[in-house]
Amino acid sequence: MDLGKGSMEIRLPEKVQYIITQLENAGYEGYAVGGCVRDSILQKEPDDWDITTSATPLQTKAVFERTVDTGMKHGTVTVLLGKEGFEVTTYRIDGEYEDSRHPKEVIFTANLIEDLKRRDFTINAMAYNPKSGIIDAFDGIKDLKDHVIRCVGEPQERFGEDALRIMRAVRFSAQLGFSIEEQTEQAAHILAPTLKNISAERICTELVKLLISDHPDYLRTAFKMGITAVILPEFDRIMETTQNNPHHCYNVGEHTLHALNHVKPDKVLRLAMLFHDFGKPQTKSTDEKGIDHFYGHAEVSAHLSSDIMHRLKFDNDTIKKVVKLVKYHDLKIEQEPAAVRRAIVTVGEDIFPYLLQIKQGDFLAQSTYKRKEKEEELQILTEIYEKILRNKDCISLKTLAVTGTDLVEWGMKPGKEIGETLGRLFDIVLQDPSKNTKEYLLSRIH
Fold first, then answer.
1. For 146-155, how does the pLDDT look when each residue is reduced to its tens digit (9 = 90+)?
2. Which H/E stretch holds residue 114?
3. What's the CA gap between 391 and 385, in Å, rounded?
4. Does the chain have fewer CB atoms within 10 Å around its N or its C terminus?
5. Which residues in the chain come in under a pLDDT of 70?
6. What is the DSSP string of 302-324?
């Protein structure tokens, strides 16, 4: 176990360096720790910088002028420098875990290695300061070089302490393109059922991070390890649903995993792609020729995606967008401007560009049967859509040349009739945008 001065130099942000220096000047140890060290070694820009210290929370507070008590019980104080906050946490040993998530007690320690021992994976259990270099007691650098996710110490113990680490193993694997070490994977498989003890919000956060990673198809690993059986059983059903159809070369689940790789790493896009075919197991039928069909699967998938996202405590805006995309992912749109304008209104102005990307991701994960025709059709729809935007065609009641106020001034009584009339006039304009003038539209009122 080499605890000596690491040869690798990490460039710390000025304020992080300042915090470590101030702690050392006061007679304590201070290190950047965890993900920021990992990312720096991988030459990635860390999202945030966590600092660990031998100072107790009260001692840390005494060193710095401005602090916030963010988690004193767990040893965390936020040090404020200018408009930025940095979490500074005392070295600690976690007591016994009762609920697969939280330790009964936290014991502060003056020993850095004891603190690093309790962390989840070797690649996250490294610390750094300029004087000591990299402290890598568990071969995290080797695992980074070997592209491996490995638990610190005994995997069953680490996952038994905090079941969310089981999902984090797959998530880090997907983000970094790493494999999961054999014993770590076996322990995760054994303890996957304990994920039922983890809150929906935390599951949701890890699932989204996995989906918007460079390897969203690593959800396959979560399936093989028994994770999805607990957190997303609907996914297991599509992994077991075949689709004998010339348009397809994979089962429903594998098609979905491939499709995820064909859309940008955007939360709404990736979630819609994940859920778009969840209704297929319930709608599968086979004709006399042995060809499988899934009539009405989009509507069923939309209902399921709404149920799942509410269960996982997604925010309402994300739910609304994803459910709409799932519902309309199979929408047949004629290749002419009026039909595209109507589709934009049906789907929603904000959602429609996503729909074109979903349609592309969908057919790129199918067989090559009629691939050329599908590509040409989408290209034409995209060109028509872009022309509609360039021409600023009226695709919303907001840009209709006539308003409800105009109709009242024209002599119509406020009420249901105004809404119906505006709808009828809007229909005329969707068919022919050149008719979006107040003069013409008022002439169409009978």
1. 999 999 999 9
2. helix 112-117
3. 10
4. C
5. 1-7, 94-105, 446
6. HHHHHHHHHHTT--HHHHHHHHH
Return the pLDDT at 5: 39
Residue 414 is predicted with a pLDDT of 85
- Enter the tokens of residue 217: 């198809």
Residue type, 202: R
Helix (H) or strand (E) holding 90: strand 84-90
Q: Which residues contact 427 (CB under 8 A, 6 or more apart)?
A: none
pLDDT in tens, 225-256: 999 999 999 999 999 999 999 999 999 999 99
CA angle, corner 60, sides to 55 and 64, nearest 5?
145
82: Cα separation from own chain's centroid:
31
Closest CA to 352 of 383, 332, 324, 374: 324
Contacts of 36 (CB under 8 A, 6+ apart): 46, 48, 49, 50
> Which residues make Cβ contacts (< 8 Å) with residue 90, sequence separation at least 6?
52, 53, 54, 55, 56, 57, 60, 75, 76, 108
Distance between CA atoms of residues 44 and 38, nearest Å: 9
Is there a contact between 395 and 341 (Cβ–Cβ < 8 Å)? yes
Cα–Cα dist 355/331, whole Å = 9
Contact 134, 37 (CB under 8 A): yes
Structure tokens at 47: 């999202």
Distances (CA, A) of 121 to 53, 134, 143, 221, 311: 20, 16, 10, 17, 29
- The Cα 254–Cα 240 span in angstroms is 10
Distance CA 45, CA 66 (A): 26
Q: What is the pTM of this model?
A: 0.92
Spatial contact of 234 and 190, defined as CB atoms under 8 Å apart = no
Rounded Cα distance between 61 and 177, Å, is 40
CA proximity to 345, closest of 287, 264, 431, 412: 431
How crowded is the C-beta side of 153, counted as CA atoms within 13 Å?
16
CA distance linking residue 36 with residue 176, whole number of Å:
14
For 30, how many CA atoms within 13 A lie in the half-sphere containing its CB? Answer: 27
Query: In the chain, pLDDT over 90 holds for what percent of residues?
Result: 88
Q: Report which of 280, 284, 353, 355 is spatially closest to residue 323, judged by C-alpha positions.
A: 355
Neighbouring CB atoms inside 10 A of 434's CB total: 9
pLDDT of 96 reads 57
